[in-house]
Structure formats: C-alpha cells, structure tokens
C-alpha cells in the first residue's frame, strides 16, 4: 500500500513492485485461507490464464507487468480503509442498557449502516456479538444487521464494492452518483423497518426487539470522512476517488492516533498482526479476479466479438443489474460478475456513473440474499444461521429493492442525459 501511495504522490515507482508484494502476501497467507476461497481463486486464475494463453496464441500482446500489478490500486484502497478501524469503533459500554421495540430497530439499522460504511464487516460482528444471546441472534436481528450493512454498498467510498466499481468505472462522478445511491440506501433501510414492523402475527416480537443504541456522535466520523474525500477530489481532480481514499484514510487515522496520545508504532503493530492477515481471502480473490478481467479483456479484443447492442442506456443497465443479481443468487461473487460485465461492456463505452450505479446496486442487494455471499456465510459460521434460510428471509426485500433500483437507473440516466 505504501508503494502505491508513493506512486500517487509522484515517485517514479512501477506498479509491478506493489503487485509483487501483494502476490507474495497472498502466497504466505494461502495455507490459512478458507477452502471455498482457495477453490474460487484457483478457478478464476485458471480461466483467466487460459484466456491469456489463447489470446497470445492469436498474436495478442500480453503484458506480464499488468498481470503482476493485478488490482493493486483496488487492494491498496482496501488496506488503507482498514486503518479506519484504529479510530472508529462502535461504543463498547457493556453496562448501557440495550433499547427495545421499534426505536431499537431503527437505531440498530442506523448504527450498523454508519459504522459498516467506514470499518466494513467488523462493525457487524461488534454489534452482533453485543446483541447475541446464547451465541446466536434472532431472525429479526440478523435481517437488520445484514441489510443495514449491505445497504452501505450503495454509497460508501470506503466499501469494497466502491473499490471494485471504481477500478472498472474510474470516470464515475461520485457527487452525481450519490444523488441517487444515497436515497436508495435510505429506502433500503426504510423498507426493512416497514417489513419488520408489519409482519402480522410476529408483531409482538418486534416490540421485544433488542437493538443497539445509536448516539449523535456516531454520525460525525462517517460524515467528516465522506466530506474529506469529496473536498480532496475537488482540490486535486487528477486523483481518482480510489487514489484519494488510499492517501486519506491512513493519514487521517494516524493523525487521530497521535492526537489521542496513543503510540502510533504500537497501534500499527495491532493492525499488522490483527486485521491485515485476515484479508487473505479478499487478497487472493481480488488478485485472481484481476487476472480474469485482464484475460477476458484480451480475449474479447483478440476474438473481435461484440455485443448485439448499439449503446449502454437505461434498458441495458437495468438488464445488467438484474443479470448480476441473479448470478449472486446462484452463488457467484459480485467481484466476478463485475469483472465479467466490465470486460463485456467496455466496447460500448458506457457512461461510468451509470455503470457504477449498476455495480453498486447489484452488490448492495445481491449480497444480502446471495446464499454464498461473504456476509451470509459469516453469519452461518458465527451465529449458526443457515445461509439458505437467510436467503429466503431476504427474497421479498430483493424483489422490492430491484424495482426501486431499476427506477433509480432510469432516473440517473435522465439526469446524465444518457438516452435509451
């Protein structure tokens, strides 16, 4: 990450140096990866490698440096975001009484959404462990935690979804995207609140819902970070959003650590020995997906194949979203879908802001219901909830949110002047 940041600041460093570091890290962490993730990564590498081999046989140029630097910028952003966990944690006051009822439902949705938008999946389990009884959470608590967290993918610049999306659609205008994606996130949480508050015979259980308290101070850090990202991007428009976050997140986090009179060396030691080694699954998957994306891009270029489409308007965007969500239900990770869609749609020169909304929405909605998504499998392992049962709980939500997303796609296309 430091090598990528140094390159962004103007030092003449080839991206392959950082890439070599990430591949070495993936090799060292490989034995500890989940079996499913190893299988997925090997499959992606095999398909991407075959595409590159066939393309090379057809005379296409294959750059070894691009393979080595596979998704280095994306991974650097994810590492940078992990620094935020050093300064942003949900309150750990065990003695505070947990609220109950509809108000608790709303505060839990807000808490997991806001903290999740900054420190990602760890926030879900910090809050979930606080709510858990006898090692598990209730159906309603699981739904709130999963949907509240995944809805942050609609807009959060610190989410893996945004990192992957911006690596494929680097020209996306974040300010214009937020005009549509932030309301979608609010609608997702409002829909969850409405569904759980009106569930007929189980209504009494909502009155007994044990939730997590949300304090006004919790709003400050996510708002400040989002504002800082936009301001720095406006000040230095040559820097992509991906680059801005890679530079900003570690710098702000270390500044807060120093200001709070904590030892920066000891704090960094906690990060290096704690959170970073846990990124092995993401590291292997994103490196392999980078090879797949490059392989598909090269294959399509050498093959000369084109889609039977003249452009990428709201209709094509809506169909792309629905196809990606369907693949998520079949257990395919969103990053694979985005890599495939990015390579296939590139010849159409799609509007990057519209394309970003498609990818972010498919991630936000698809991962909440996908039985093999990371968060649902994590809930299965941590709280003993079957991931296919979680899928059934969220199918109605997926259907209603998909209607809203398609409407949002048409609205954004109109705002951008993209014709159908």
UniProtKB/TrEMBL annotation:
Keywords recorded for this protein, A-Z: Membrane, Transmembrane, Transmembrane helix
Residue stretches spanning the membrane: 42-61, 73-92, 104-127, 148-169, 175-194, 214-232, 238-259, 283-305, 325-346, 353-375, 395-418
Descriptive protein name: Tellurium resistance protein TerC
Highest classification ranks of the organism: Bacteria, Pseudomonadati, Pseudomonadota, Gammaproteobacteria, Aeromonadales
């Amino acid at each position: 990450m430091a090598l990528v940041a140094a390159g962004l600041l103007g030092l003449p460093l080839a991206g392959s140096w950082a890439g070599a570091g990430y591949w070495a890290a993936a090799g060292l962490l490989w034995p500890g990866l989940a079996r499913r993730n190893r299988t997925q990564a090997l499959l992606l590498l095999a398909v991407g490698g075959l595409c590159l081999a066939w393309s090379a046989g057809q005379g296409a140029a294959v750059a070894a440096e691009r393979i080595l630097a596979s998704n280095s910028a994306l991974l650097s952003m994810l590492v940078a975001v992990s620094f935020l966990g050093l300064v942003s944690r949900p309150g750990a006051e065990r003695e505070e009484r947990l609220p109950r009822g509809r108000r608790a439902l709303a505060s839990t949705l807000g808490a997991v959404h806001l903290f999740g938008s900054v420190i990602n999946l760890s926030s879900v389990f910090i809050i979930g462990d606080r709510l858990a009884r006898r090692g598990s959470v209730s159906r309603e608590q699981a739904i709130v935690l999963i949907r509240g967290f995944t809805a942050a993918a609609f807009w959060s610049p610190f989410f893996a979804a945004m990192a992957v999306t911006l690596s494929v659609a680097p020209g996306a205008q974040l300010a214009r995207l937020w005009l549509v994606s932030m309301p979608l996130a609010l609608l997702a949480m409002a829909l969850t609140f409405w569904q759980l508050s009106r569930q007929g015979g189980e209504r009494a259980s909502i009155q007994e819902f044990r939730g997590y308290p949300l304090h006004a101070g919790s709003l400050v850090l996510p708002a400040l970070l989002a504002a800082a990202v936009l301001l720095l991007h406006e000040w230095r428009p040559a820097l992509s959003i991906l680059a801005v976050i890679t530079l900003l997140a570690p710098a702000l986090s270390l500044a807060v650590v120093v200001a709070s009179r904590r030892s920066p060396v000891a704090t960094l030691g906690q990060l290096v020995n704690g959170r970073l080694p846990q990124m092995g699954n993401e590291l292997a998957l994103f490196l392999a997906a980078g090879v797949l994306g490059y392989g598909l891009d090269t294959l399509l270029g050498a093959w000369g194949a084109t889609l039977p489409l003249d452009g990428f308007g709201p209709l094509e965007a809506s169909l792309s979203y629905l196809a990606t969500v369907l693949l998520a239900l079949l257990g395919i990770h969103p990053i694979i879908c985005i890599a495939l869609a990015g390579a296939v749609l590139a010849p159409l020169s799609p509007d990057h802001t519209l394309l970003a909304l498609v990818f972010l929405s498919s991630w936000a909605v698809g991962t909440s219901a996908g039985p093999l998504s990371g968060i649902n499998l994590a809930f299965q392992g941590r709280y003993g909830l079957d991931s296919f049962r979680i899928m059934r709980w969220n199918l109605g939500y997926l259907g209603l949110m998909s209607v809203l997303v398609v409407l949002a796609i048409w609205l954004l296309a109109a705002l951008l002047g993209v014709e159908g």
